[in-house]
Design brief:
Number of strands: 0
Shape: globular
Helix content: 55-70%
Strand content: under 5%
Length: 286
Amino acid sequence: MRGAAPDMADPNQLFDDTSAHAGPPGLGYRGQETPGMGFPAQALLTEPMSNFAVAYGSSLASQGKEMVDRNLDRLITISKLKYYFAVDTVYVGKKLGLLVFPYMHKNWEVRYQQDTPVAPRFDINAPDLYIPAMAFITYILVAGLALGTQNRFSPEILGIQASSALVWLIIEVLVTLLSLYLVTVNTDLTTIDLIAFSGYKYVGMIVGVVSGLLFGRTGYYLVLLWCCIAIVVFMIRTLRLKILSEAAAQGVLVRGAKNQLRMYLTMAIATAQPVFMYWLTYHLVR
């Protein structure tokens, strides 16, 4: 027919065939996808979140560490605690000799350098925690040895011995602090100083118990009596400069009832040491 198009479509065909004008295969709707909307987009979202979580966790950890350090410094300053363990062999030997034989020692004042006490290894009069700590541990070991020689050793009894000694030490320090507060003593004594001074009595207790193991009860009583007198002299000559720090600083004696209370307090602290020494050792020697 003359006007018919050479590519006339089939009259039975409902839709036009557009496949002839389509582009290359694979470039349909799939080819129109926006690049980068799959895994790379998730990575871009996930990476900032992970970095934020790491930064936030590090911030919490640093804040927690600062809080622990700040609260710990309120109780015990680490630098101050290190001061009480700044000892050497020479200091330990001289201090043990002073605890057992304090009668020939003349100068009991603690030396200072720019308003700061020098380290114990440079001053025999400075309090330390090394000797009290080691003496306490040694006392527990010697107590176990004494109980073992008498066939009375058991972990429970040794634990009771250690806990009772620690409890009495805490009670002694607390009572001393309360007494200083009630007497309104203006002193540079700290709680750690009181723990150190109260712990020196374990040296005499060790010597007394060992003497009792070697020489019987007679040796125990004689040596313990010597150590008790020595610790009383040591405590009086040491604490009188601490408790009477105001008068010592001015170079004069404080008159009146306040001074008497301070002297009584010094004597009470010193004379309490032999009581604890006997109470914690008499049952270890038979």
